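## Example record

The block below lists the input lines for one assembly entry, exactly as stored, with component labels intact.
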Amino acid sequence: METPKRRRSATRARLLEGALEVFAERGFHGASVEDICDRAGFTRGAFYSNFASKDELVLALFQATTDRLLEQIAALLPDLANQPGTLLDAVLGLLDEAAPDQRQWHLISTEFTLHALRHPEAAAALNLQRAMFRDQLTRLVEEITRASGLQMSVPPQQFVRLVIAVHEGARAQSLLEPDLVPAGSLEHTFLPLVLDAVSSRT
Amino acid sequence: METPKRRRSATRARLLEGALEVFAERGFHGASVEDICDRAGFTRGAFYSNFASKDELVLALFQATTDRLLEQIAALLPDLANQPGTLLDAVLGLLDEAAPDQRQWHLISTEFTLHALRHPEAAAALNLQRAMFRDQLTRLVEEITRASGLQMSVPPQQFVRLVIAVHEGARAQSLLEPDLVPAGSLEHTFLPLVLDAVSSRT
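Predicted structure tokens for the full assembly:
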């Protein structure tokens, strides 16, 4: 039976999905709340009963994607917690699959970052969300190094920042030149080398 | 004495400088040719006698910045060609100084990359320019490894791609959280480790 709560959650999901497409086509600034509602087949009332603003919708998109990713990583842990190299490769694979469409995802996440660089309120909200995501990844890295009897020569938080930087920087290159830079290739080539260089047996 | 050629070059320089400011304020799409001319104190005629379009102006901005960077790197070579680690640190420092204002530079270069992801013609022009820049950096890496008697376990071109990916990805983090991620900190922490991991004495 469809409960009001379940209906509300389906509405949110369809709005998020429609927004991702509209943002990719028209850009974060070019896409209006009306465009998003038209695409998802809802009224503006439905939009505003779910999100206070376009900013809030984008942050909800980020949250949904990072939640999914963290769940997928957690599912790998029981088998791979003591094999950091294999786990890192698996996590890098998940990073490329966490968003249903890497191009759409890159467009909106990069555009919102630029928006944040011009609007302190958006920056505060984005930074808070990114910090929570990094903290959860950092805890995973700490758990894994403990389980594998490894010690890192850099703060795990810094290693997580590097993984994110390489992933975001490499994604731009992969999207610009997909034939020359297959998705994930720079990450898979270099990040295991870094992990190895900063890890030692305790 | 001011020659027509020198005057033309000064006009270009002022247009480029004005454009960088206007792009940072209004975005690549929000800034019109008129806005750029107003800022630089020229007519639209002056603009179009120097650039066919906004796209062409942005590519000229990129070219000027990468030319300056390559010149600065070349100036370091005589002293540091056989000290790859020191040279890498120096080059990373130059990357942060090549543009007069990192925030403005990040905004326009990222926005133009997004524009290219939506417009194949812009992508072709941008890719060509980025390829030339990478090729010149790759030749430098080859020269340095030769001079230092080193061999790399990855193609030098891949290492150059990684440096660019880390730099571009880390710059977004530095601009969002300048207190937590000082400019260049991720690059200086991790890239020398990578260089070391992929280099061996011949």
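The two ends of chain B are 55 Å apart (CA to CA). Chain B touches chain A through 42 residues (CB under 8 Å).
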